[in-house]
Amino acid sequence: MTRAGFVALIGEPNAGKSTLLNRMVGAKVSIVTHKVQTTRARIRGVAIEGETQIVFVDTPGIFRPRRRLDRAMVTAAWGGAADADLTVLMIEAHRGVTEGVEAILEALEDLPRDKRIALAVNKIDRVKSEALLALTKDMNDRFEFVETFLISAERGHGCDDLKTWLAGQLPEGPWLYPEDQIADLPLRMLAAETTREKLTLRLHQELPYQMTVETEGWEERKDGSCKIDQLIYVMRDGHKGIVLGKKGETIKAVSTAARAELEEFLGRKVHLFLQVKVRPNWLEEKERYSEMGLDFKDGNS
């Protein structure tokens, strides 16, 4: 008998949700950077464990929202938890019970009683075993988790145990996606996310959260390659100069890195063309939210 279901990964920004998702799926479907709040859409990655298909929902990190985009992201995160068969709360071992984790624990109390929440303590290689034991006891005293896992998403420690357990918990039923599909994001959005990751890694400070990338054109060519045209929207003229870099060096480096990753992912040659446009109000444009898989209405305060 086959099983299938949805597992939501929730937690603070940078807790390691995207890293865990990519490890579980075995491919890079969610962008991973050292910066917080990089996952904007609820990216679904599909993993197979025996006869079970696990559909992971990698939600945006839960944090205190300030802008419309922030509010839409947090709403998307809680929507992912509410819709899933199982939810895994990820926390960082070395940071312990932060204010953010306490806020999430409070909010978990508002979820329906039948919602099953597991705890995954990530980055366990950063602390001693006594501290780990104290942290897991503290967390389980605060909330009734159905199971607790000690993992290192980056190194893989404990991830197989978590995956096996999740597979056994999901309901019986037919698979939800074709066997060879690893994500339900359209390729256009995956390509845009790849470029946005490279931009985020190259740039710093506030700028990465004030820009977005859209795949404007996707052309399949007769030789088997594809041509991808993308627009990078920024909010100010000064931002455009930063993205382009001196003599276009920054955008050239971003394009090269994004193209190489897309070629590896797609298994064919990619012609990637990037353009930077200034759109002062893109954070208030409904279409931009649709492109990111977010609901514009959820950004209302």
Taking the sheet with the most strands, its summary is: 6 strands, mixed
Named CATH topology of the largest domain: Rossmann fold
Number of domains: 2
- pLDDT < 50 runs, ≥5 residues: 33-39
SSE order, one letter for each helix or strand: EHEEHEHEHEHHEEHHEH
Query: Structural class of the secondary elements?
Result: alpha/beta
The N- to C-terminal Cα distance equals 46 Å
CATH superfamily caption of the largest domain: P-loop containing nucleotide triphosphate hydrolases
CATH class of the largest domain: Alpha Beta
Q: If you compute it from the alpha carbons, what radius of gyration comes out, rounded to the nearest whole angstrom? A: 20 Å
What share of the residues does DSSP label as strand, in percent? 15-25%
* Helicity range: 25-40%
Task: Using the alpha-carbon principal axes, give the shape.
Answer: globular
Indicate the CATH architecture of the largest domain.
3-Layer(aba) Sandwich
| Average of pLDDT | 81
Helical run tally: 9
Spell out the key features of this protein:
GMP Synthetase, Chain A, domain 3; single chain; alpha/beta; 36% helix; 2 domains; six-stranded mixed sheet; three-stranded mixed sheet
